Every structure is written in structure tokens, then in C-alpha cells.
Amino acid sequence: MPLKRPHHHRDASTHLRVNPVFSREPIHVPRFELPDDGMDPETAYQIVHDELMLDGNARLNLATFVSTWAEPQAQQLMAECAEKNMIDKDEYPQTAEVEARCVHMLAELWNAPDAHAAVGCSTTGSSEAAMLAGLALKRRWQHRRRAEGKPADRPNVVMGINVQVCWEKFADYFEVEPRYVPMEGNRYHMSAEGAAALCDENTIGVIAVLGSTFDGSYEPVAEISAALDELQERTGVDVPVHVDGASGAMIAPFLDPDLAWDFRLPRVASINTSGHKYGLVMPGVGWALWRDAEALPDDLVFHVNYLGGDMPTFALNFSRPGAQVIAQYYNFLRLGFEGYRRVQQTCRDVAVRLAKEIAEIGPFTLLTDGSELPVFAFTVNDDITNFSVFDVSAALRERGWLVPAYTFPDNRTDLAALRVVIRNGFGHDLADLFLEDLRRVLPRLQAQAQPHRDVTDAGAFAHGTEAATTERRTDAKPAAPASA
């Protein structure tokens, strides 16, 4: 069934009646089919430009993790590289060289045992990187099972119910049974005990999330790794860990250097991140890295001739621009370690301060406070019965602020929250304006007799909080109760 488009759901005219330049007569432009003839570039630009004014202001979008600002020099480099296909490494060898340099820089940042022995690649984003990492886990498990003379037709992957939706897609697209560790009480992500309880000899890996999209919290990667060590000692089942560091892998190295979550843990086989989130690049670039060549089965890798030598490639997309990879390298050179640390620390400072002041307003309770990812979630107090988080989200949207409201997944579907993402460019001044607008809408909301909106009015800008459900698991053994 083809995907439905927005215009299928409303009575829309099939033509645009526009007057793009005041000195010209109005013209008719078909909405859903190619026009018979072309038009002046100024007219085409004005038509598209005017429609795009209806989009939200990206700088006021507190839903997205994606970078919404870049320096002019980075944008210039991206424009200069827009026509370069990243996959054509033999045609654009220096772009390929820059990609390799970024991989080595990330490997060092993530404490690979040998940064030059680590393997990795750029992707269109962290979702593609997650798919590649999942495929490597599956293929590595299949090779081991076949070498042992055992069946390799029932793989499963263990993850928290809070994972980003790309992992549910991975399990569906590549026929891997997903096993979800549910939330319990005030624990909003996977526990080490819950992860180990769902593992068996068919488990290709455990996905640990460094920075949950629901509330910004880190999952306890070291505790999960230790629980899997104990599981192996007790049962012989050896399960690797993949760290989904879409956001946190570009926060923790700079702000939480003593936190063990990366290749310092021997059980961590691979890590992905999003360069266009806290990597500070405009969309879209992601990165997938493996501890060493052994962690990435060679039969998944294609080899191309590169300057007379061998260049391995691993990707789901064949054509994508090299511009974002170049921008990533620019940022690495421009900021260095200390520059990234300052940027991320500022984001965290703003998040912690804003969360604290929201909690002090009165009707709100924090779920997280921005002290891990510069992201926090809050909810309406239990004694508030006349407005909902969905009312708050809608009221803020009237002022241009995009703040997602959503319900949590199993077993906390009773919990509805708002989430605020602080990115580079959202400083204390914008935080003050946001607080003023939040305080401004409260009297009107408090005057309501009952909530006007519920989850059906939440909109579609959840950015990763599309909840998975344990009901989608097939042939999974029951989840063991997980401790808080």
C-alpha cells in the first residue's frame, strides 16, 4: 500500500493561484503534477519560498536533536561538496581520506584499544549506523552458530522498551526477534538485570542506549556489561554489546570522561553516533565504529580500488553527498576537544538551569534534569486535573515553540510528559524567553475546567519517542521483573 500524503486527507485545490512578484499577473501552477512549461527562476523560487514560511522555526524546535545552526564556513564547505557522491571513493579520494580521519578521531575519542585498528564508516545518520551495527551483530552470531554446528535461524536482540524506533525497524526488516526490557516505576530505561534475563544462546547482542530519547538519561552500560560477564560465567552464553550513542557518544567523552561506556569495556563491540546531533553538523551524517576488524564480519564489507589500494565500504545507501562528512571534519578541526567540551557544557548548563526553573514554577515535576544528555522531561503534577501536558504543548506552539508531549511505553503508559532538547545555539537568553512564555500560558490553562487535549492531539514530532511495545515480540520468553 503506498504511503499516504497529507493532501490525501483534505479537500485541496489541484492548482496554486499565486502572485509571486507584485508586478506580474497571478498564474496557475499545478500542485500535484508537472507544469506544462517552465517558469522564471525567480517565480519558482518565490512560490517554494512562500510555502516554506509555514514551516516551524528550526531554532525554536525543542523537539529535535538535529543541529539547526552551522558556521558560514561550514556551510560554504558543504556547498562546495554538495555534488560529491560519498560512495565514489575512487573518484573523490580526498573525501574518502577525510572520512577515514574522522573514523580514527572517533575511535580515539571512544577509547578503542588501537584507534588505527578500529574500523568504521560514515552513514546518512545514526539510524543507518544502527542498522549496520545490527547487521554485523547478526552476521557475527550466524557465523559462530554455524561453526558450532548449531541452527542460526532464530536470532533475537535485547533492548530497552525506550529504544529509538530505528531498532524496532531493524528487527522487523532483518528478521530478528526483538526482546524489550520494560520500564518499571521510576526507571525509564533498561536495567542490567532485565537485559541479562532476556538473553539466551540466540541473542545476537544487547543494545545499550547512551541517552534515551524519552528523557535524556544514560543506560548503565558498564552494569549491563558486567551482568553479561556474569551470564557468560554461569551459562557460557557470550553476548556482545552495541552502544547506541546517537546523542550521548558526543556528550559523554567531553563532559563525563570517567564514565565507562565505550571501548574501554571489552564487551562493547560497536558504537554508533549521529554527527548531525551533538556532533554539531547539519543533517545528515552518522558514524558506525567497531572495536576491530574481527567485530565486523568481512563478508559484509565491499572492497573498492582506492588509489591503487583497497578501500573497504559498508553502507545501505549507494548515493549520498560527502558534504556532511566534510563539515564533520571541519568541526573536529575548528573546535578540537576543548571546543566541543565548551559547547556541550554550555548546552548542559542551560538544560540544568532551565529544568530547575521549570520545576520551581509550581505545577510541574521533573523526570530528568538535563545532567546527562542536555535533555530533560517533565510532567504535570498528579493533583493538576484541569490541563494536560498536551495542552501545554499546544499553548507553547502558539508562540512558535515546538515541545513534544507524549506517553511513555510499557509498563508506564500511564505517564505523559513533555521533553526539551537543548542544542548548540539555544542559550540562556532563549531559555529566558521560553520560561516567560511558559509562565504566560499557565493562567489560561489553569482557568480551564478540564483538559482540552489528550494523546490523540500530540502531533507527530516525537523524534524517537514513538513507543515500541512488548506485544510486538514474537516467540519471546516472558520478561523477568527488572529492579529499579
From TrEMBL:
Residues 465-484 are annotated as: Disordered. CDD domains: DOPA_deC_like. The keyword Nucleotide-binding does not apply. Pfam families: Pyridoxal_deC (PF00282). SUPFAM superfamilies: PLP-dependent transferases (SSF53383). Its EC number is 4.1.1.15. It is an enzyme of class 4 (lyase). Keywords: Decarboxylase, Lyase, Pyridoxal phosphate. InterPro entries: Glutamate_decarboxylase, PyrdxlP-dep_de-COase, PyrdxlP-dep_Trfase, PyrdxlP-dep_Trfase_major. Belongs to the group II decarboxylase family. This is Glutamate decarboxylase. It comes from Streptomyces humicola.
